[in-house]
Structure formats: structure tokens, C-alpha cells
Amino acid sequence: MTDPKKPQDEADFVDDYTPALLAQASQLISGEFHVIVQANGFTISDWRVLSSLSGGKALSIGELAQISVTKQPTVTRLLDRMEAQGYVKRIPHDTDRRITLVRITPRGQKLTSSLIEQARMHEDEVLAPLGKKKADELRATLKLLIDLHRPAN
């Protein structure tokens, strides 16, 4: 029952508030896949870091933290362990000695390739009810929102 003293738009605020909707959708959909991640012996943080690097492009630790939605000190600790396991390699930046880049190794890529296939299948299942056109529009809209709000490096 709504409070008669509250305007309707306040009572239903989170039902139509885009950041809340994005957070809920992300939590629900990611949570479904995290069950698979953990069943494959990965922590969620390991998966986020390795999958962020899976394209083969070297990323700075700051970029990796942002893309993987993981705090930078946590990423640094994960990278220490992953580098010791041979899953990632740190490399110096060409022109800025303050920046360390990270690249996935062939061993790390092999470790994540099966899980990436499963992630793509999960995504297909999630987006199937929308149809290809709406799914493509959703991705494009999300990428645009990210680009518009990504902090400058």
C-alpha cells in the first residue's frame, strides 16, 4: 500500500531508476553465471580479471580494475598470484614507466577458453527472449553509457 503523503514518483522511484535497474539486472544475470564460474574452480574475481584479459590486449592495472569491476589493490594481489601461476604476465609500458601493463598468457587463455564458451551460451540464453535486434541495441546502449561515463585516464 502506498503512502498517501508520498508522491507516486517517489513511491516507485527504484522501479524506474535506471542505475537501480542496471544494478539489479547485472546482479541477477551475473549471479546465474557465477554458479558456473565457481563450479569450475574459479573465484569471481579471478574470472573477472582473466576474462577481461582474454582478448589478448595488454591492459594497465587501472584499466583492468575498471573493466573487471574490482578494486585496484585487489587486482594487484590477484595478479601477483596469477603471474606466479603463469596465467598472466606483467610488461612495462612503452613510454610511461609508471604504468604496468598486464597480458594473459597462452596458459591463462587455455584455462579460461571453456568458461568463455559457457559465458557466451549463458548470454545467448539471457538475451534470446529479446530477439537479435533488441539484444544488439541493448549492447550498443550499454557501451554508449559506459563510454559517456568512463573516467578519463
Automatic annotation (TrEMBL):
Q: Which UniProt keywords apply?
A: DNA-binding, Transcription, Transcription regulation
Query: Per the database entry, which stretches of residues form a coiled coil?
Result: none
> What's a Pfam family in this record?
MarR_2
Residues of the HTH marR-type domain: 15-147
> Which PANTHER family does the record cross-reference, listed alphabetically?
TRANSCRIPTIONAL REGULATOR SLYA, TRANSCRIPTIONAL REGULATOR, MARR FAMILY
Task: List the protein's name.
Answer: Transcriptional activatory protein BadR
Taxonomic lineage is:
Bacteria, Pseudomonadati, Pseudomonadota, Betaproteobacteria, Burkholderiales
